[in-house]
Amino acid sequence: MSNQVAVDDVLDALGDRTRRAIVRRLRGGPLPVGELAAGLPVGRPAVSKHLRVLEGAGLVVHTSVGTRNLYALAPPGFTALQQWLVSTWDEALGAFAERMAGRAEEEKP
Amino acid sequence: MTTLPPIRRQVVVRGAPEAAFEVFTGEIGLWWPVARHSVYGDGATVAFEQGRIVERGPGGGEAVWGSVLEWEPPSLLAVTWHPGSDVDKASRVRVSFEALADGMTLVTLEHDGWERLPDPGASRTEYGNGWPRVLDRYAAQAPTAAAPGADGPVWLVLDHTGGPALPPGEPVFGQPDFGEHIAFLGRLRERGVLVAAGSLDRHSTGMTVLRVPDPADVATYVGLAQTDDGAVTAGLLQVRVRPWHVALERAAERG
Fold it and tell me: Do A85 and B111 touch (CB under 8 A)?
């Protein structure tokens, strides 16, 4: 169940206000740590720590450009989160379809 | 990736859109799987009450899951969605109901703003041990929607667009999982329902037309479009199934 582990990591990573703020800011495109920290109420070391958590969950990747690191959103973490929500809705819609089928049977003359 | 696409799930149910809308809203307490997906778990009830979706626990607790944004029976329902958390952290769920053929409705659920899903870790704890992942269940349940006596054929259009796993700016065609999409189309052709399939541009959008002779099989194909296409399940592509109300067709195809 390696996917399950990934989903738990993603959910835990996004369970933090600052990390969600980082994700929102990265939606505009890749940024270095310094610029990320400038728009957040926490210091640069804290931002670096949060970025490591996000990277570990597959939500963020970094690339080295010269002497600095650029951070960007990464699809795998979001795909895992999406699949988790998909399974939830599939189960609910499956139950709805069953109810509609049961109703159609009841209405048969 | 600047925006994340909505989650879209589609299912075919028996009954006209009027009935489907009524059961989805007025009778949500009769079908919603509260034992697995609720704040209070087994024994809870859920209902639409005065423009809100309200869950009540066996011990008298109350949780508001969302509020109605749009209410257009029998075709459209939109609600804010924040089970187990605050209103300001809401995502949005939109459900549409479209007649497919006699006595069959295509239900399309779209969940957007979910990437802002707030404290999912906290909700998960409130929800017990997490909402289980049961992707395969969908395929098993979708074929419950046979509509005996409905007239065929039923035409479906599968709209394909780039999914969340498609690297930004890259065309879909060179991606490793794209072969899965071609394989899926091949399986549809073998089943004799594929009319045509192809891309609409050089990036990631494409269209497939299906002609399903027996309406009883429609639910199966709506399910397969979401579960049997490896490019869709991998997130490379997204699919939206649309009913196509064909009025005229080539004479040779009739019958």
Answer: yes
Interface-testing mutation among A4, A16, A99, with chain B (most B C-beta atoms within 10 A)? A99
* Domain count within chain A: 1
- Say yes or no for a CB contact (<8 Å) between B124 and A11: yes
Does the pTM of the predicted model rise above 0.95?
no
**Model ipTM over 0.85:** no
Pairwise CB contact (< 8 Å): A91 & B4:
no
Domain extent, residue A14, equals 2-107
CATH 3.40.920.10, applies to B146-253: no
Q: Does the domain made of B7-132 have the CATH classification 3.30.530.20?
A: yes
Chain A residues with beta carbon closer than 8 angstroms to that of B3: 27
**Per-residue pLDDT tens over the stretch B51-95:** 999 999 999 999 999 999 999 999 999 999 887 666 666 789 999
- Asked whether B99 and B243 are in contact (CB, 8 A), the reply is yes
Backbone angles phi, psi at B47, to 5 degrees: -155, 155
